[in-house]
Specification:
The protein has 20 helices and 25 strands. The protein has 801 residues and is of the alpha+beta class. Belongs to the flavoprotein pyridine nucleotide cytochrome reductase family.
Length: 801
């Protein structure tokens, strides 16, 4: 029998009960003193809480939650802040009230509550408990909303929903992208391909995920298979902790220290059972579930922080007296003015949010998820601009209120003991959290003046007014240059047949490849007469033993593995990468590495690894001891360098992206017959983070074939080199302009660096077919900058197809 998913809350109609409460209480509302344990609450009284919007059941839940905050969540708030501790114990405690399943229907093991109740619960946790816990819980509810909209005819997802509160499974969502930031979550750095009817291969880079590596499950938005550049063609999946890689230990911020937010990578094969809805439903899930619940719940969080700061300030100002004048701080008119203004603005925000929640409850049949089985039923889309306004006003208000309350408390407020400064730091997250206040104001103003369709979030339409205005600024020479450029692009787009090899973009890992990776399967005979066989194979695993380990820092180490024979070469070309596999808890886990040792460093392979806080393979390497064994296979892809096939090679790298370039440089420097000129531009965050600096600089000092340019994000006083990210200025100064020579450009770094460099190369008239990018997103990054139908680089030096 098909299961029906209903809201199942408050006798079937919480809205009617709220209306009755309002009628019954409007003429005579009693102000019941608010308790804090066995004593009276020291903050703002209940007369300033809009209780009339809550049902009796919701009020009871709120009172129980306040007590849970007092006894369990609030005592841990300072520790979460000072120690950057993830609030797992506080989150687990919410399950005792059923709150991990707050919006999950009763038929699936949840409470079946509505939007009003969501706002109340989030505000209560932020106000009486811990803002970090409230924000982590916000993202948990966002993830739950994604599962609920996509669970119809998905037994795997429904089973997960049943377990969430019972097994205390914390979730979150992954929508961000490192290449687009908070401007708009445009999934440029994502990829999806069908392996077979039951299996999908996913790769998603997220710039920013709350609970990164700590959550038990993740609702992930990603491009659909064969999306062909249409970023409205999105899909969503649920993945689990073992499928993610994250370095949350790097999380350092002004506030919200317990969130453990940070970059995240989802990589691997998952069952199609884990898909939310169907292919292409990702946009709907984002606009009808994830987006509305994020704006709603985060607004409630900022309201809770505003109220919490007034609670603490009231406690201080009513108890603190000035002996010289015999007045309490609260007796000063200016302080009373502070409180009056903050209370009024905050309750305006609370009132707006609750009015919005009531509207959402009415429009969605009291949060009835069963209705979403109809793909045409999208009631929340009509509330988009109201959700934006709520997030904008609450996130701006919390900054004003917390700052004002800090001033009201004077020097005591400035110190950490009172807690107002912590709330102020936490509250600042709201205005920069996507969508930022500036973006929301711009969107609201533009939509009001020009219509909601003018926003064009997915960049599908041209703004001809702006275009014509910009064209009018150009002189005749500039117009001719633009016309020539456009004519060239039009010719490319008009070509019916692709300029590229049919094999390109068929290999998930190697989109530039025009054929499978080249394997050096020949026997190499050196001058001493020794025969050197390939130690690895591209189609089968070879077990290798760890022979040495060198710690570079507390977060990085070098690992040297012995090949089967001391005389073996790897079988790889310079620039190619390999796969490493480990069996952990009965499951095989794979990761790709670019060796830093030369292919003809006979008998060994050297890998450099920066450890991640969360990642199965990374943790395995952290515990790896000399004598341990792992499985290797290769070559698996990458740029294939061969000596004297190029006049010039430009390598652009950032951070750990130096590894393939380092291997190529080592190979060229060791081959005096190779006449290739090499130019390395290498970005590091600071001087101490420059990997292999001494070796690279020594190569450049003694060998005229190599030029090394370091650029730093945070340069020391003595630094004379370039500063900042690799941009058009640095590329224009240090990269040879197109001059007819055989010149290949190889990029290896994060999506932000790659796209920034690609825009610079295009502006400087470098051809797309000159540029090879490491990583699975490379061809899409090229197309994003140069156009959908441009000619791509191959994976070889000579660009032979």
């Amino acid at each position: 029998m098909k299961e029906t998913i209903t809201n199942g809350t408050m006798n079937g109609n919480g809205i009617h009960e709220v209306t009755n409460n309002l009628k019954n209480n409007s003429s005579n509302r009693e102000c019941i003193p608010k308790s804090w344990g066995t004593k009276e609450f020291w903050g703002c009284g209940s007369e300033y809480d809009p209780d009339w919007v809550l049902t009796g059941q919701q009020k009871t839940l709120r009172d129980k939650l306040i007590e849970l905050c007092r006894t369990t969540i609030r005592p841990r708030a300072v520790e979460c802040d000072t120690d950057y501790k993830y609030p797992r114990e506080s989150l687990d405690s919410l399950a005792s009230l059923g709150l991990l399943g707050l919006i999950i229907p009763k038929e699936l093991g949840g409470m079946g509550e509505n939007h009003v109740c969501c706002a109340m619960v989030i505000e209560t946790i932020a106000r009486y408990g811990c803002p970090s816990t409230a924000m982590v819980y916000t993202m948990h509810l966002v993830g739950c909303s994604m599962l609920l909209l996509g669970c119809h005819q998905r037994p795997h997802v429904q089973q997960l929903l049943r377990r969430i509160n019972k097994d205390k499974l914390i979730g979150t969502s992954v929508h961000s992208d490192p290449a687009t930031g908070g401007h708009n979550w445009f999934p440029l750095s994502s990829k999806c391909a069908l392996v077979d009817e039951r299996t999908v291969k996913l790769l998603k880079f997220g710039a920013w995920a709350t609970s990164a590596g700590y959550a038990d499950w993740y609702g992930v938005q990603i491009v659909s298979p064969k999306f062909d550049g249409d970023f409205t063609n999105l899909s969503c999946f649920v993945v689990y902790r073992d499928d993610v890689r994250a370095s949350s230990d790097d999380w350092s911020a002004l506030g919200m220290h317990g969130n453990m937010s940070g970059p995240i990578i989802i990589e691997g094969k998952v069952s199609t059972d884990q898909m939310l809805g169907n292919f292409g439903d990702g946009q709907r899930i984002g606009e009808e579930a994830a987006g509305p619940f994020f704006y709603l719940c985060s607004s409630a969080c900022w309201n809770g922080i505003s109220m919490a700061s007034m609670d603490l300030a009231r406690k201080h100002t009513t108890r603190r007296a000035h002996a010289d004048v015999g007045m309490r701080v609260c007796d000063y008119p200016i302080v009373q003015d502070y409180f009056g203004g903050c209370l009024s603005s905050t309750n305006s925000c609370r009132g707006m949010l609750l009015l919005l929640c009531q509207g959402l409850d009415q429009a969605t049949d009291n949060c009835n998820w069963n209705r979403y089985a109809d793909p045409k039923w999208n009631p929340r889309e009509n509330f988009k601009v109201w959700l934006w306004q709520s997030k904008l006003e609450t996130s701006e208000n919390v900054i004003k209120v917390t700052q004002t309350m800090l001033k009201a408390c004077g020097g005591t407020g400035y110190k950490s003991d009172l807690g107002v400064e912590r709330l102020m730091r936490d509250g600042f997250a709201g205005c920069v959290m996507s969508a930022s206040s500036e973006l929301l104001r711009g969107n609201l103003g533009k939509s009001m003046l020009l219509g909601i369709e003018s926003l064009d979030c997915w960049q599908m339409h041209c703004n001809e007014r702006v275009l014509h205005n910009e064209l009018n600024k150009m002189d005749l020479h500039a117009k001719k240059a633009l016309m020539a450029k456009l004519q060239k692009e039009v010719k490319i787009e008009e070509i019916k047949e692709s300029l590229n090899h049919p094999y390109q973009d068929t290999d998930f890992e190697n989109p530039f490849n025009t054929m499978p990776p080249h394997y050096v399967d020949k026997t190499i005979i050196t001058s001493d007469g020794i025969r050197h066989e390939p130690g690895l194979h591209p189609n089968k695993w070879t077990t290798l033993e760890l022979v040495s380990r060198t710690e570079v820092s507390d977060k990085m180490a070098l690992f040297v593995f012995g090949l089967p024979s001391e005389s073996d070469h790897t079988g790889l070309l310079p620039g190619q990468y390999l796969a490493v596999q480990a069996t952990i808890a009965g499951k095989k886990h794979l990761r790709y590495f670019s060796p830093i040792s030369k292919p003809n460093d006979f008998g060994q392979i050297e890998l450099a690894l920066r450890f991640e806080t969360h990642g199965i393979i990374s943790q395995f390497f952290q515990n790896l001891k000399v004598g341990s064994e792992m499985e290797f296979m290769g070559p698996c892809g990458g740029f294939e360098y061969e000596s004297n096939t190029l006049d010039e090679l430009t390598l652009i790298a950032s951070g750990g992206g130096i590894t393939p370039g380092l291997q190529v440089i080592r190979c060229i420097m060791s081959d005096k017959k190779d006449n290739t000129e090499v130019n390395l531009i290498y970005y590091s965050d600071n001087y101490q983070d420059i990997l292999y600096r001494e070796e690279l600089d020594e190569f450049a000092a003694v060998d005229g074939r190599l030029t090394v340019v370091h650029t730093l994000g945070d340069a020391p006083p003595h630094w004379t080199g370039p500063e900042g990210f690799i941009d058009a200025d640095i590329i224009g100064r240090f990269v040879t302009k197109p001059n007819g020579r055989k010149h290949k450009i190889v990029l290896c770094g994060g999506p932000t660096m790659v796209l920034s460099c690609l825009y610079a190369f295009k502006a400087l008239h470098f051809e797309s077919e000159q540029i090879f990018t490491y990583g699975q997103f490379g061809t899409e990054q090229i197309r994003k900058v140069y156009g959908r139908n441009v000619k791509l680089s191959g994976h070889r030096c000579d660009n032979t197809l």
